[in-house]
Amino acid sequence: PQGSEEAKAFVSAFLKRSMPRKKDEAIQDFLTRKAVVLEHYSKKKTKPRRKKTKGFTAKQRREMRLFEIEPEQRRYAIFLPLHELWKQYIRDLCHGLKPDAQPHMVQSKLLKADLHGAIVTVTKSKCPSYVGITGIILQEFKHVFKIITKEDKLKGKIFFIVPKLNNVFSLEIDGFISYIYGSKFQLRASERSAKKFKLKGTIDL
User: Membrane-spanning regions, if any (predicted)?
Assistant: First the structure.
């Protein structure tokens, strides 16, 4: 009948459009089966690239004075509560700092801990004028510590910036004394948490 011929022509044309990669012989082979599975070629969706958020440059941070502390806040007594919070943070980090705690375990925790609020002392230095400086760390940068002393000033400065290079620092908490060799500690606080520190027999300034 004429209707069946039209239906057959329609199906053949439809299959050619639906399966453009198939040859006529393959399409006829599909028609001899009871079920026909039509292939679908979907276009690959391209994922939009995420734009990386750019932070402030060092010049912009200086111009905005992001790291400056107001003059009325530059007093040692103001930061003593910060030191108390830091001590509690270290106790929690080291599971209480019990007397039977292993020193190397405490040392490894302190190396990766945040030191803002810690009281440190310069015990050794290639520059003798740094030795004996004791104060609370207010800011830690990659190469320097910015600390404030009990006298609120040192050599005419409210803050004292101590380079890590060629200096050895000590910090004490609940009877545990830890030493930091600044030359091997030139990392940002955020970078230290992922760094693996290796044990060395001797370390130079």
Answer: none
The domain locations on the chain are: 73-193
Nearest to 189 by CA among 151, 139, 118: 139
Q: First CA to last CA across the chain, in angstroms? A: 100
Q: How many other CB atoms are found less than 10 A from the CB of residue 117?
A: 19
Q: What does the pLDDT look like over 181-205, one tens digit per residue?
A: 888 888 888 788 777 777 665 566 6
What predicted TM-score, i.e. pTM, was given to this entire model? 0.65
Rg of the chain (C-alpha set): 34
- Angle among Cα 145, 188, 70 to the nearest 5 degrees reads 50
User: What tens digit of pLDDT does each residue of 56-96 get?
Assistant: 887 887 788 777 777 777 788 899 999 999 999 998 888 87
The answer to whether residues 179 and 197 touch, using CB atoms and an 8 Å cutoff, is no
